[in-house]
Amino acid sequence: MQIKNRAKEYDVIIVGSGAGGGMATKVLSEAGLSVAVVEAGPFFDPADPKTMTQLKPAFYSPRRGGSSTRHFGDYDQAYGGWDIEGEPYGQIGETDFKWFRSRMLGGRTNHWGRISLRFGPNDFKRKSIDGLGENWPISYDDIKPYYDKVDKLIGVFGSKENIYNEPDGFFLPPPKPRLHELFYIKGARKSNVKVMPSRLSVLTKRINNDRGLCFYCAGCAKSCNVYGDFSSGSCLIFPAQKSGGQIDLYVNSMVRTVTTNEEGKASGVSFIDKDQNKEYKLKGKVVVLAASACSSARILLNSKTKQHPNGLGNSSDLIGKYLHDSTGGDMMAFLPELINRKTYNEDGVGGMHVYSPWWLDNKKLDFARGYHIEVWGGMGAPTYGTGFNVNNFNKFFGINKAGGYGDILRSDMKKYYGSTIGISGRGESIAQKTNYCEIDPNKVDKFGVPILRFNYQWTDNEIKQAKHMQDTFEEIIYNMGGIPLWGKPGKDANYGLNKPGWIIHEVGTTRMGDDPKKSVTNQFERLHDVSNVYVVDAGPFVSQADKNPTWTILALAMRSSEHIVEEFKKQNF
Amino acid sequence: MKRRDSIKSIALVSFGASLFLESCFGVTREKITRSLTRYDYGRTPEETLYDDKLFAQKFFTSDELLTLDKLCNLILPPNEFGSIRDAEVVQLIEFMAKDIPSYQVPLRNGLVWINEESKNRFNNLFIDLDQTNQKEILDEIAYYDPNDNMNDLPEPVQWFNLVRNLTMTGYFTSEVGIKELGYKGNMPNIWDGVPQDVLDQYGLEYDKDWLEKCIDQSTRMTIAEWDDEGNLLT
Questions:
Q1: Closest by CA position to A178, among listed B229, B217, B199, B106
Q2: Which of A65, A204, A374, A432 has its CA 20 to 30 A from that of A176?
Q3: Which residues contact A234 (CB under 8 A, 6 or more apart)?
Q4: At a CB cut-off of 8 Å and minimum separation 6, what does B81 contact?
Q5: Do A62 and B202 touch (CB under 8 A)?
């Protein structure tokens, strides 16, 4: 860790080191600017054997990979989760918002699903199409060159499909489908649901000589030690350091506020060194927030001063508002044809090899916006929970007897192993002003920093979309010869719609726009109110599309960072 | 194996040995438990402390561990691949009872119940019954209708289901169990599609135009280059 509290004034202070912070670090440091990266968690390198979990079998863990310390299991590389000791968040009324935080260099890019979808032309102009929400101040054509550069810089596999709202990019060839995915293709086609190769930022082919290639261990959530998948550290921050960038990393350093000078411009940040529990200040000409949508909103709202009594950049009173997460719905099925499978290594990449983009026209439906379908299943690595209720599927063969003991359990285990498939919908919700995070005036975390509380309710659009997911999934499952495993959730359970936050795609808290009264940032993700503060996480998203946000975070962060470089050249800071 | 010897083999593995070393060499229990285990799985310092705390606690008594060992062996008797002891199933149950404290009461109550049942019916502890009598007791709690909700079934049935679940997961996540199951992944390899004999078995084939889009694995080492339209050239 570098010396803190130094007198040095950085050109740029970047808060957070995930997708947005990593991209800003790379672009700004490679332009010759001096950069401080302030990360709330520890240093993390996927290649470090000390922290590595990739390729470790379940029995290396005393709980066999169970989830009592990490929500997605022992081997998932996210330090943090839904609940972090001493760092609570509150709920307003009946809200049950789930806020996932990963505190480590690279943030959530270390464990994410690597689903790397471009937003399409329609996704930037949804209000013009259905009258709901707001249009973005930019169009697909504005961002397309940056998507292209991100594809080539980081690498993404996929296929050219020529679908208007699912733009093609510069793809590496995708891997072949697995067996359960062939069953999905069969079922989906019978239901007239489009299926195509998935688009994941995993290297099926070299893009340079610095990064290793995917070796198909299904371990992307463990963060790849040969850098065969995208993480912010391996693909952005470490290469930027290697190419000689002036980058100081401040880890275990949680930013409390953006500090301002007498003119109301940002002068740097104050942060808590978590190792010493002491507060320090850093000076910078420009502050780039990339702490995640809700954390960046929290920092801005906590940065109150005389000039900014409402929080920094909040004259619109919109910071924290229009918070929205993807919709999510799931169904799991048993495929009787797949009992007693021949076993072979079908790990593949860490995620699906096939998926379905949104395929319908909302004009003919009773809800707005669409969803894409993800597929999972097959002969996965045994982990804690494998073998539970081993022969409950007996009931599907008319045998109303399960359990037992002795050698029958061994044969039942092998009989049913790899015979399930799951499908999940991930869709677009409509951003609502009434869905927001705000500062709880009465509560602080263990560092004394005021915490967030959430207010969030789904609307009819999302609930009806979830019902459509359940009906569609059920049909696809029957069409592939499967039997749904769970009862179909009804109206009382919002048709299985996941709680807000659960899909970990929270966006919109500092949304961009041309009108400072109706938005927090401009099209370059700069605060309308403060000319030297930018937000390059998913906060500036006006709408989230039925796509995962990461590829768009990266493209926007690249575009905004190039804008910052131009502004430096014009001596505007 | 005599009862005293089997106590040794179970307890020594998990705790006895560490306590013994602690008294002899005066080093901390945490250090020993960690050095005695091969649990090298990329923990953060906080997670290591938590694991150490659990390793330093003891939940089950030696008699309870022995009873569990017997039960687990009845659930999955040893075969040519391996045994409950190879898979360290009882150690896993001891650890999980501390890691997921809600397991503690049902696991312990069930052990009390099965000994009471054994005494009432056969005048002895479960572990000292002959196998015919042990199985007679198990036969009454080991089966259920999978259409029923487990939570509505008698407590001994629920308890045995929990022990069976922990035994199954313990065995099939162990080195010997994974081998027996036939899981072949979690190692570097090149995925090049479903084997032809498996496709044939299910009457499936890859679409020609889909396959044409997929990676030709002989080209994976060649650096990707595209034309301006995104067509891959290499």
A1: B199
A2: A65
A3: A45, A46, A47, A106, A211, A223, A224, A227
A4: B176, B177, B179, B180
A5: no
The second-level CATH assignment, the architecture, of A9-56+65-380+418-569 is: 3-Layer(bba) Sandwich (3.50)
Q: B177, A382: Cβ pair inside 8 Å?
A: yes
Q: What is the pLDDT of residues A72-102, one digit of tens each?
A: 999 999 999 999 999 999 999 999 999 999 9
Q: Tell me whether residues A388 and B165 touch, CB distance under 8 A.
A: yes
Cα–Cα nearest to A372, from A96, A116, A156, A85: A116
How big, in percent rounded to 5, are the helix, strand and coil portions of chain A?
Answer: 25, 20, 55
The structure tokens listed for B86 are 């190879």
Task: Return the closest-CA partner of residue A320 out of A456, A502, A173.
Answer: A456
Tokens of A472: 């569609």
- Measured between CA atoms, the residue of chain B closest to residue A148 is B230
Predicted confidence (pLDDT) per residue in A378-409, tens digit: 999 999 999 999 999 999 999 999 999 999 99
Residues A357 and A159 sit within 8 Å (Cβ to Cβ): no
Integer Cα distance of B107 and B97 in angstroms: 8
Q: How far apart are CA A534 and CA A544, in angstroms?
A: 19
C-alpha angle A555-A556-A559 in degrees, rounded to nearest 5: 90
Distance between B23 CA and the closest CA of chain A, angstroms? 25
- Residue A56 with chain B: CB contacts under 8 Å: 40-42
**What are the extents of the domains in chain A?**
9-56+65-380+418-569
Q: How many CB pairs under 8 A join A and B?
A: 265
Residues in chain B closer than 8 A to A413 (CB atoms): 168, 172, 181
Q: Residue B2 above 70 pLDDT?
A: no
Say if the Cβ atoms of B221 and A208 lie within 8 Å. no
What is the nearest CA distance from A210 to chain B, expressed in angstroms?
Answer: 11
Q: How many angstroms away from the CA of A293 is the closest CA of chain B?
A: 25
Burial class of residue A172, CB neighbours in 10 A (0-12, 13-18, 19+): buried
The single-letter DSSP state of residue A14 is E
Q: Which residues of A touch B74 (CB under 8 A)?
A: 405-406
Which among A219, A387, A414 has CB closest to B165? Answer: A387
